Amino acid sequence: MSAPPLKTAEVLDSIAGVLSPYLGKMMARASAGAHCKDLSIDGDLVDGQQVDALIERLGKGLNLFLGRDRSKLVVEEMRQALARLAGGMR
Amino acid sequence: MNSMKGSRLTLPFLAVLLLAAFPSALKTLAPDAAVFTSLLNPRALLWISGLAKLLFLVVATGLAWRSSALFERKTPAHTGWRLLYLGLLSSSVAQAILVTSQVSAAVPEFLASPADLFFLLSYPLFITALFAFLRAYRESGYPLGTAADRRATVLITAAVCALIAVLVLKPLLGSAAPALDKTLDITYTLFDFVLLIPTVLLLRITLRFPGGAVWRIWIALLGGFVFVCAGDILFAWFTGMSMPRLDPVVDLMYIVGYGCLALGTAYQRELLV
Q1: Which residues pair with A7 in a beta bridge?
Q2: B20 has which bridge partners?
Q3: CB contact, 8 Å: B215 with chain A?
């Protein structure tokens, strides 16, 4: 059974919350939004595949600033934050 | 991750920086103070400023080297950190040669020495490092402004640099300084202007990351380059205008510049591990 879709705005808020300490609030939100646009995520809901693609894109960008080890940790943090979000919606 | 909000490194680093910069700052503000004929005599000042600069450069070199290993190979970030490390290494060697000559001869200035070879070598390394970092930013996919914004930044920076070049280099060319010294001063100044272009571009991008750990790293690193360039340009200007009494200002710029470079590399290292 695939994961239920999540609200796009809440996903962006969760991701921005994880990224803010590294990129600053403004860039965290803007980068998540920009990658959403690139991935054509424009509806109110976002499915699991789209979330994975978004996290993968953000992780690649982070790799260039945080190095491979720290960016892996941050990607994991994003996944956990979204898992909590999905858990909270049930 | 709340631990990223502030850095434990800031206060200790600033304390060391203030301590190292204090004698030059005081000499700038009160050059005839009694302390400069006793405790902080010219030889003591040479030791303090020379060793402080060397210490900051060596710390920055070590940290940049260790950081470069934590970026994936063949990425522009890895290339940038490797080149930055090599540039800092070259500057460290130059500073070590310079401080040895200065302290052993008790003379503050040594133009046209072997140290210049290494200082000059560091510029192409720094410039290519900063262009590699610009590529890294571009590849990150983050919204960093338009190509037109970047072109405008380059044009404005180049215009300002050209204006400063005229102001600084004109008196230098007309001065009685030896030809080799003039050539070196002009070369340093021109390298600085080239270095300032990627520095300003990166600063402009960095200002889009306010409050984050990335912002902290890059403000310190780029601030370091700005102070070093200011030191070189002021040195050339003071030489042209025959104002040796203002040498402590130049020293201050280098101490703060190298201190900022060390702080920036320390922030990056802190973020990586």
Answers
A1: A45
A2: none
A3: yes
From residue B174, how far is each of B168, B192, B193, B240 by CA, in Å?
A: 11, 21, 21, 7
Residue of A nearest to B68 (CA): A67
Q: What is the ipTM of this complex?
A: 0.85
Kind and range of the H or E run holding B202: helix B179-206
Write the DSSP symbol of residue B242.
T
B84/B242 Cα distance (integer angstroms): 34
pLDDT tens-digit map of B137-193: 988 888 888 889 999 999 999 999 999 999 988 888 888 888 888 899 899 999 999
A28 touches chain B (CB under 8 A): yes
In angstroms, the Cα distances linking B56 to A75, B33, B51, B84, B134 are 34, 27, 9, 14, 25
CA distance B158 to B155: 5
Question: Nearest C-alpha of chain B: how many angstroms from A52?
Answer: 16
Identify any residues that bridge with A46 across adjacent strands, giving them in sequence order. Answer: A6
Q: How many CB atoms lie within 10 A of CB B217?
A: 24
Q: Which residues of B31-43 are buried (b: 16+ CB within 10 A; e: fewer)?
A: eeeeebeeebeee
Residue B162 half-sphere exposure toward CB, CA atoms < 13 A: 6
Q: How many CB atoms lie within 10 A of CB B98?
A: 21
What is the chain B residue with the closest CA to A31?
B142
3-state DSSP of chain A: CCCCCEEHHHHHHHHHHHHHHHHHHHHHHHHHHHHHHHCCCCCCEECHHHHHHHHHHHHHHHHHHHHHHHHHHHHHHHHHHHHHHHHHHC
pLDDT digits (tens, 9 = 90+) for B31-75: 888 898 888 888 888 899 999 999 999 999 999 999 999 898 889
Contact A34 B143 (CB under 8 A): yes
